[in-house]
Amino acid sequence: MDLRQLFADARRKFEEGGLVLDVEEDKLVIVGDLHGDKETLDLVLKRWDGGRFLFLGDYVDRGNKGLEVLTTVVKLYLEGKAYVLRGNHESPLMNEDGGFMDELCLYKRIPNCGELYGDIERMFAVMPVAARINGAVLAVHGGIPLKEPSMEPASIAELAKPSGDLVLPEDPLIYQALWNDPCDCEAHAPSPRGPGIWLYGRGPTERFLKEEGLKAIVRGHLYVSAGYVSHHGVVHTVFTSRAGPYKAVRPKVAVLDGGVLQIYDLLSNEAIRRVEI
Ligand SMILES: [Mn+2]
């Protein structure tokens, strides 16, 4: 299939779906950052063959099969088999130095790679940034955005109605949803990732979940060699890439099955943690 057509079709479908999804699924396999790791993606798709998937973003950069990963998840999305969220690497801000533009133009030598990237960039801009699953779990790449200057958590409704351009993105709440991380702190702290990015602590996390009537957050973004870490018992980070710099990672996915969230180790094929939601 023509790639430009594929990404244009996906862009139109993403546009119709909005920036925040409401998802109802009995069983959902939630996949963390892939960063061009097609082998691990194939492992997940084989292990849960015929299942429903939610991808937490960061399909490209770092690993060398970003285009294959992106194409695969977008096809699953168009076939109605997967929800596909945006990560901070779904942005021209990252792809110039992160490896994806070089993959397209230098290594794969795709003719008119700039035009293909233009289609991809337009699609990135309209991808959803969060999904509410079964009214209980929020899936998001980075996490809870904080409103300056009060530093209180933003609501999901505010995320759904952004102001400013979405390409980079410029909207500060959307930007933080893609970039923020949890911390073991009580309130919040500036993020080492850069200006405009925050670490959200126990207080804002608990207030956010209470306000939204949710139980937990499943997110990616943070590289952890164990492939999984939890904060305050309610923020669950899964990391699913072994590409490039992540060779030593033990990749994990989260499987939401009824009222239970299970964390699976992909190498041993075992559930390493079980959380009642
Ligand atoms: Mn990320």
Automatic annotation (TrEMBL):
CDD domains: MPP_PPP_family (cd00144). Transmembrane segments: none annotated. GO terms for molecular function: protein serine/threonine phosphatase activity. Residues 85-90 form the Serine/threonine specific protein phosphatases domain. GO terms for cellular component: cytoplasm. InterPro entries: Calcineurin-like_PHP (IPR004843), Metallo-depent_PP-like (IPR029052), PP1_catalytic_subunit (IPR050341), Ser/Thr-sp_prot-phosphatase (IPR006186). This is Serine/threonine protein phosphatase.
